[in-house]
Design goal:
The chain has 466 residues and is mainly α. The protein has one domain: Hydantoin permease, CATH 1.10.4160. Helix content is 78%, strand content 0%. Helix 6 packs antiparallel against helix 7. The longest helix has 35 residues.
């Protein structure tokens, strides 16, 4: 067989594979999907708080610098690997390694990413169920008359009810896998075209209402007044860590989504748009939340307590609290669901491509496994709360394993693979950066600054630095 015949056959085979897997219909569809993956629970309950506590505008400036140095370069690398390999994360990394003359064992790095996303989804679905449970509770007025003690007791009662947690967590998994099971165009894209604009509209409505509380200026000052005296070295590390975790990196999601990206779409422009949208949603969430907190004389809390203990008190006291509270938790549930969809897709793609099974079978297999694993998280708040390993419950152990170990190490491996295993010419061609100086800058940042930043994130998350 001639070389021309081989080339034609390879091109035809690649085209057939792409057609079978499906593609996003446009850059806008990919933007919505990637933004939906990045925007999750952490944007709404964590970023606004850490911004206000670490100098407001000063923290935002440092955070944006970290996004440029870590988040965007790694996001571009993951999307590029997915599109270049046109396969699930394991298959894409193995194919690119083979093309580069490197060991196919690099594909195991993609396997780690898939496994990481799978583990995260097993407990993320349970936590997302909290938002689903609180939406009808807010709408029917269950928060009326709550104070700090009674609101905390209400939240604790929900956590201590395994049947309720299983029910709502199962609902999240059914919605997630039902959407993913329909495929790229009919499932992921169609649902995200509805959910992401809906999330933005709900968020803007809530910001508009918050502006009428009389404490909007206080919230703006809390979030944006640049107080560099509050920005310590620890605050810089917090910005560094959040710039890594916020974009759904090192979980296989962006590689999987990148594998469906049409060839002519600019990875650079789209990655920047996703990072800016992710940050914008987080800041808008702060503008929606903190005027309500300040208007009701409450203290801005951290983590889930801000959302599930502090805010219900405000919703129970304010005018139209049932409507506003219901809309808020619907928005939160949408944000959680869009992230859950992205976390499930790498596993589904891997099962269908690795074992040649149908998408429906892949959904059923992963769904059963996820549901069984999620029971460990559910029971961590009740029957298994006293069962610990190294002082951590089942849920805490999964959270620690994924957040502190697998994600930073997986992200570091991806950067090293892209910057030191793949050839410079291959990466430049795959990214489509025609300007030599711009690519040289990105290349130097990816090979030097980004791995150093991720290493600092890893050391900090392990308590070994900062």
């Amino acid at each position: 067989m001639s070389q021309d015949s081989i080339a034609v056959g390879s091109i035809a085979g690649a085209a057939s594979s792409v057609a079978a897997r499906g593609l996003w219909s446009s850059r806008w569809a990919f933007f919505l999907a990637a933004t939906g993956s990045a925007v999750g629970l952490g944007n709404i309950w964590k970023f606004p708080y850490i911004t206000g506590q670490n100098g407001g505008g000063a923290f935002v400036l440092v955070y944006l610098a970290c996004i440029l140095a870590i988040g965007i370069p790694l996001l571009m690398a993951e999307v590029m690997i997915g599109r270049r390999g046109r396969a699930n994360p394991e298959g894409a990394m193995a194919a690119l390694a083979k093309q580069a003359g490197a060991s196919r064992h690099w594909g195991k790095l993609g396997s780690v990413a898939i496994f990481t996303g799978f583990l995260i989804l097993s407990f993320y679905a349970v936590i997302a169920g909290w938002a689903v449970a609180y939406a009808p509770a807010a709408a029917i007025g269950s928060f009326a008359g709550l104070d700090g003690e009674s609101s905390g007791a209400l939240f604790a009662a929900m956590l201590g009810d395994p049947w309720k947690l299983v029910g709502y967590g199962t609902l999240v998994l059914l919605l997630t896998l039902g959407i993913v099971g329909l495929g790229v165009r009919e499932g992921l894209e169609r649902s995200l075209r509805f959910m992401m604009p809906g999330l933005f509209v709900l968020l803007l409505v809530l910001v508009g209402y918050a502006a009428t509380t009389g404490h909007f200026a206080e919230a703006v000052d809390f979030l944006f007044a640049a107080d560099f005296s509050k920005l310590s070295g620890q605050g810089v590390l917090v910005a560094l860590g959040h710039s890594f975790f916020t974009l759904s990196l090192a979980s296989g999601a962006m590689m999987a989504y990148g594998s469906y990206l049409p060839a002519g779409t600019s990875i650079v422009k789209t990655s920047i748009m996703v990072a800016l949208a992710d940050t914008g949603v987080a800041l808008l969430a702060g503008l929606a939340i903190f005027p309500l907190v300040f208007a009701n004389g409450l203290e801005p809390g951290s983590g889930p307590g801000l959302i599930f203990v502090t805010l219900p008190i405000a919703f129970g006291q304010m005018p139209f609290g049932q409507v506003v509270g219901g809309l808020f938790f619907v928005m939160l549930a949408i944000a959680a669901l869009t992230s859950a969809i992205s976390l499930s897709e790498p596993t589904i793609a891997w099962l269908t491509e690795k074992f040649g099974i149908s998408r429906l079978k892949a959904v059923l297999l992963s769904g059963v496994a996820l549901w069984l694993l999620s029971l460990g998280t559910v029971l961590s708040f009740s029957a298994w709360s006293e069962i610990t390993l190294f002082g951590k419950t089942f849920f805490d152990s999964l959270d620690y394993l994924t957040t502190n170990l697998l994600m930073p190490l997986g992200g570091l491996g991806t950067v090293l693979f892209t910057g030191w295993v793949l050839s410079r010419s291959t990466v430049q061609e795959a990214l489509g950066i025609g300007h030599p100086q711009l690519f040289r800058l990105w290349w130097q940042v990816l090979r030097g600054v980004t791995p150093l930043g991720i290493l600092l994130v890893f050391l900090h998350s392990m308590g070994l630095f900062g």
